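User: Sequence recovery, please. Input:
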């Protein structure tokens, strides 16, 4: 479980002024949850994502991952073995000279034995349709292929939690559908403990795939509930700078359909 307890986060400029990005945010993520987080630009959602695995430390409050506090430097390595993160731009996450080496990179850092590392690399190359590119430089891949590689690399480390920070925003519609399918497939596979996913997205159709939706405004949680319910509140969402699924807007525009007499 991830427990977010009354966290705030302030960005401090070189001149000493600060801007509060998160303000007294609290919620829990149970094992096996699939949570979506939405919010307009500047709402604090990416900052929140980085607090969940200790990339950023809250100015006040605390984040606990299975009881481990991200403020404790001695526990950060254990936390990051459990909590993987995929960013918006795969170029910011890829570090190796070949596709195969990229998948192996994180496993080497974890000290995974060679035979097990080889098994996982082969598994990920096949699962993410990257076999033809194994000896190629990642920089020759398309945007969608790079994002599949980045996802394969973090999942090869077998995390318990997957934090996805707008990972489809740079992809075309077909690429977005494929990535979302891969997220959901990973989440739904049987595992102990149950796999947990946090998807930060600007696409309401993606949020509908989650079991729970959190909506942020100016660093605060303003909605928390089932996506199917919250995303029907089209006028409230518009006031927050967010969109609703097209089918919900059409239903609202057309009204209930009368059965044929």
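Assistant: Recovered sequence (261 residues):
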């Amino acid at each position: 479980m991830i427990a977010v307890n009354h966290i705030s986060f302030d960005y401090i400029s070189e001149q000493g002024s600060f801007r509060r990005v998160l303000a007294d945010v609290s919620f829990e993520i149970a094992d096996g949850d699939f949570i979506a987080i939405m919010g307009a630009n500047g709402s604090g959602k990416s900052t929140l994502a980085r607090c969940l695995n200790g990339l950023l430390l809250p100015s006040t409050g605390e984040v606990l991952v299975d009881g481990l506090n991200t403020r404790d430097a001695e526990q950060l390595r254990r936390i990051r073995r459990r909590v993987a993160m995929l960013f918006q731009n795969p170029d910011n996450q890829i570090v190796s000279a070949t596709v195969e080496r990229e998948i192996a990179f994180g496993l080497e850092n974890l000290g995974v034995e060679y035979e097990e590392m080889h098994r996982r690399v082969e598994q990920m190359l096949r699962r993410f349709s990257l076999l033809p590119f194994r000896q190629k430089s990642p920089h020759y891949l398309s945007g969608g292929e790079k994002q599949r590689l980045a996802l394969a690399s973090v999942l090869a480390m077998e995390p318990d939690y997957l934090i996805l920070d707008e990972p489809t925003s740079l992809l075309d519609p077909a690429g977005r559908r494929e990535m979302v399918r891969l997220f959901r497939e990973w989440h739904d596979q049987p595992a102990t403990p149950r796999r947990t996913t946090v998807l930060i997205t600007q696409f309401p159709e993606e949020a509908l795939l989650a079991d729970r939706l959190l909506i942020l405004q100016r660093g605060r949680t303003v909605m928390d509930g089932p996506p199917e319910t919250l995303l029907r509140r089209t006028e409230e969402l518009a006031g927050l700078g967010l969109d609703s699924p097209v089918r919900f807007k059409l239903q609202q525009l057309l009204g209930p359909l009368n059965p044929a007499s």
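The CA atoms of residues 167 and 237 lie 22 Å apart.
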